[in-house]
Write a structure and sequence with these properties.
By secondary structure, the chain is an alpha+beta fold. The protein has one domain: Potassium Channel Kv1.1, Chain A, CATH 3.30.710.10. The protein contains six helices and four strands; from the N terminus they run αββααββααα. It has a four-stranded mixed beta sheet with strand order 2-1-4-3. A hairpin with a 2-residue loop joins β1 and β2. The longest helix is centred in the C-terminal third of the chain and has 13 residues. The chain is elongated. InterPro entries: BTB/POZ_dom, SKP1/BTB/POZ_sf, T1-type_BTB. This is Potassium channel tetramerization domain containing 21.
Length: 142
């Protein structure tokens, strides 16, 4: 595995830019080691610095047995340090669970700020329901 603490900074710099293919829940993503190790204290950082063993699929992609649906937003956050979600994003709870699983604390903090800043009606999630019922009744005794 890549040793990021190696004294040979030039070879590490090149390998950090080399593409890495990931199979996350059947979705294939290509990124760099630099992106995956941006948060070194996260699980992804540990996986890609050799602290956690990695599995490969039959095509040589690194296999991560998680839901691949929201992983793109995790990668985008790691690349840009910014949470960029589409309008009406409805998978915020799943994104939060995945960020928690991968232990990406800055992303979790960003998700909490996002939740606080966006009105619930614009988050795309289910809204509460309210019903108002006027019931008229007559008592009949036979």
């Amino acid at each position: 595995m890549l040793n990021l603490n190696s004294p040979d900074n030039n070879s590490n710099r090149n390998s950090l830019q080399d593409p890495v293919s990931l199979n996350v829940g059947g979705e294939i993503y290509t990124t760099t080691l630099d992106t995956l190790t941006r948060c070194r204290d996260s699980m992804l950082g540990a996986m890609f610095t050799g602290q956690i063993p990695m599995l490969r699929d039959s095509k040589g992609n690194i296999f991560i047995d998680r839901d691949g649906k929201v992983f793109r937003y995790i990668l985008n956050y790691l690349r840009s340090s910014s949470l960029d979600l589409p309008d009406g994003f409805s998978e915020l709870a799943l994104l939060q669970r995945e960020a928690d699983f991968f232990q990406i604390h800055p992303l979790l903090e960003e998700i909490h700020r996002y939740e606080a800043s966006v009105p619930r009606s614009l988050r795309g999630g289910p809204l509460g329901a309210m019903i108002i019922v006027n019931v008229e009744s007559k008592v009949c005794m036979y």
